[in-house]
Write a structure and sequence with these properties.
homodimer, about 190 residues, mainly alpha, Glutathione S-transferase Yfyf (Class Pi), Chain A, domain 2, 8 helices, 2 strands, about 55% helix, globular, GST_Zeta_C (chain A), EC 5.2.1.2 (chain A), Glutathione-S-Trfase_C_sf (chain A)
Chain lengths: ~190, ~220
Amino acid sequence: MQAGKPILYSYFRSSCSWRVRIALALKNIDYEMITINLIKDGGQQLAIIEYLEETRPTPRLLPQDPKKRAHVRMISDLIASGIQPLQNLSVLNQVGQENQLTWAQQVIASGFNALEQVLQSTAGKCCVGDEVSMADLCLVPQVANADRYKVDLSPYPTISRINKSLLALEAFQVSHPSRQPDTPPELRA
Amino acid sequence: MQAGKPILYSYFRSSCSWRVRIALALKNIDYEMITINLIKDGGQQFSKEFQALNPMKQVPALKIDGITISQSLAIIEYLEETRPTPRLLPQDPKKRAHVRMISDLIASGIQPLQNLSVLNQVGQENQLTWAQQVIASGFNALEQVLQSTAGKCCVGDEVSMADLCLVPQVANADRYKVDLSPYPTISRINKSLLALEAFQVSHPSRQPDTPPELRA
């Protein structure tokens, strides 16, 4: 292990880990990965992304304009506080196996209803305007969770469109859960 | 209503609203408050008007400088960038990361799991146990983190966004009768912050919508 390289503790399937892997890929930051089979979680991933932004500022993950930055953070928090924690592994374990699918679907649908509405006034090609931002790093992994829990995405055309175009970008592909060192064979791309 | 003053949509008891009230008080920002009662009328956050303002149907929301921002930490970061003094985030990027990490731990890792709508979903007979477990679990982690970051405050000796998250979460812990004796650092910091004016003037017991029986 090279001295000085950042070390990321990551779980292939964790949407929080995936957000950070995308950021590291976009900023071309070389790092070591230590895979963990989880999960005592992850709401602290946005702090990591903000630190990367402040110390490795290019390419940008937050716009320069404070109002646009507020929109990026608002959307990121909507997902990272308002949706993901409510359907994470430990909560799902607590609601009981027979309730898990319904619970996850309700949480995601409720959050996506709100997000779809917010995006009407902020989105261009991406969540906020046309540049990839921290908000997009939160959106794509959350859509993957939605797919995993069989949430019907047809009420969310903006979310779907943005997700689709982001998944075509290399940073989102190289960081994808299906391509990680700890991805099980049956889930590999 | 004076043109140009920011407008905060707040509920006295909402810990997320309290975070923003503290920030506005610390930064000496004059504002109007519109109170949203989360219980009355089936929950005023569900009204069409409020939903148009914040599609998540939650408080707080802040109308400021021609935009509307929801999510308390996004609001606080905007205030920090546009009204930078006094600071709510340190200058050093590593300390800023600690402040944000602690804020996220509370704002993503604890509070959402014990908010009103989740508690309504787990059912009345389970609510207290659920809230206690969520808070205790989060405070276990937080107490440990604070060992390496805390001085008089969560990160060093200056009040930061992390402290704005901590105090309201301790109030929630008290509300759900969580035993705080395993968390001496959390308790110490909470106590010294509550002595500061910004934390007092913004306190749930002193708001325009505080019911008489809960008034200070």
